[in-house]
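seq as requested:
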Amino acid sequence: MSDTGKVTYVMQFGAMRAGRFWRTVLTSVLLCVPVVVMAGCSTAGKADDELVILSPHWEGIQQEFERGFAEYWKAKTGRSVDITWLDQGGTSQILRFISSEYKNSPEGIGIDLMFGGGVDPYLKLVKDGVTHPFTLPDSVLARIPAHFAGMPMYDSTGRWYGATMSGFGIVFNKAVARRLGRFAPLTWKEMGDPAWRGWIGAGDPRLSGSIHMAYELMLQAYGWDEGWKAITAIAANTRSFARGAAEIPLSVARGDAVAGMCIDFYAWSEVTHVGSSELSFVYPVNLTAVNPDAICILRGAPHLNLAKEFVTFVMSEPGQRLWAFKKGAPGGPVKNQLNRFTVMPDLYERYPEHIAIDENPFSWRITFQYDSGLGSRRWSVVNDLIGAQLIDSHRELEQAWEALRQRGMPEEGLSLLASQPVSPEHALALAEQWKDPAVRNAYLSQWTAFARDKYRAVIRGEYGRNRHDTQ
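struct tokens:
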């Protein structure tokens, strides 16, 4: 990294005020909370300018954009810049943190930007009124399509921008599939085949926005009832649930699982590392989407003008080259190849030799259209439905699944196994009340009891048990 900037990581920022950042850092050091300054990235003395960014992006992305922006800012102004990256875990955890912080400090939370995590979380932030609008220069906006596959690529009033795009699919291990004598699963429902019991990788959506998106895609692609059948079968075939999206392709690459749900860039990273003869990745045809992965300025940003400059850098060609170009290509990443899509279609045409991934989403024929508004509104409710019924009650689910396997997977039993305590309409209505801890905890208790009750009924073979919508 150049000597124009440094990367600072603050781990587990917790409920402490970001606006009191330096006091927080000092306290953290004294308490031995990890405060890590990347080796080789420090500068002599304090930088001229600083930014504070909340992001679920992995360190490679943070490093490349820190380096790129520091060089851009130095060339433009002659000034150095420090970026402090706050780690609050996955996107779902970040949303809870932001909500809590603004509840305590409505004017601002001492954080400039949120960077990464898809698009649904940003719709929620807009609804909560915690974003700061900013209009990009016309020269930048002219190169970015307003919509892609029926989805907006940015907010019309500048409250968020799609900085890159992410696709969701299945990473699979060809060698493991050959050893087991079966073709690898290529659709969400195929991952629920009982023959794969114990061989499927899945994760906890309460801890990862990427994992959440895979489940939400199933609900939208198949519909509520069929989607829950697919999700339930996948969970039943899973030995344990990953806490982060990056864990699933690693598990598949090691051979611990034959296949798993995965965001594309994590899969491509492992395919590059392991080799395409052993590992592969597929987008389930007409059952998935490529969505914007956004950035926004937060309300009350303490370094507002510099935050606007950072967004402009990310969205302009220098930032887009970092996402899409091979490591070492002109203007591309220096240390970490990011394997991401650019939101500028003309880069695929102008620099095909420098593009890292041999895919151009703008050339695809996409028929499935993801409803980001629906996904955003029911985000937390879907997470808790999955958590209460499939993760926290996983032992009982596995027992029920094995009972069905022994009986030849009767359709009545499968329907009961995947039945839900709420309708899609009720789930949406609950979303409006979900910030109330008393409401949420009451339903979580009901849903856990509902799940364990239906699993016991499946084990006993009592498939006539009525579905019901908890009130």
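The CA atoms of residues 176 and 183 lie 10 Å apart.
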